[in-house]
Design brief:
38% of the residues lie in helices and 3% in strands. With 139 residues, it is an all-alpha fold.
Length: 139
Amino acid sequence: MFDQAFKDSFEQKGYSVARGLFSPAEVAALTDHYMFLRQNGTYKGDAAGVDVPNGDPAADPLKKFPRMIHMHRWDDLSLQWMLDPRFREGLATLLGGDPFAVQSMIYFKPPGARGQALHQDQFYLQVQTGHLHGGLAGA
């Protein structure tokens, strides 16, 4: 899966897609896990970056589903997923060396919610330009 075409796509387009990296059953289990966590508690870092510009907080879907951050610090499944060898293999192909896992985040996008604004995580995580890579996006 992580062949030269995968790397070429990243170099030419700025991204690569690893279709089938996780099975539908794995994706469903992770989705269920994070929805369960979101519905059953609050956690350190919840709502980080969620603001309601000129709006009613009660009507904002992101207030009901705030993002979760650094779950790997308090949730074993998140840590296992973050360190999954499939991520390492794909990122090592793109980077030419082993990646460092430094952050985990789930950003919920319920119907009617705003998207994630452009931002510069490299500044906040204090990494060199070009050395920060996002992981997984899903529907």
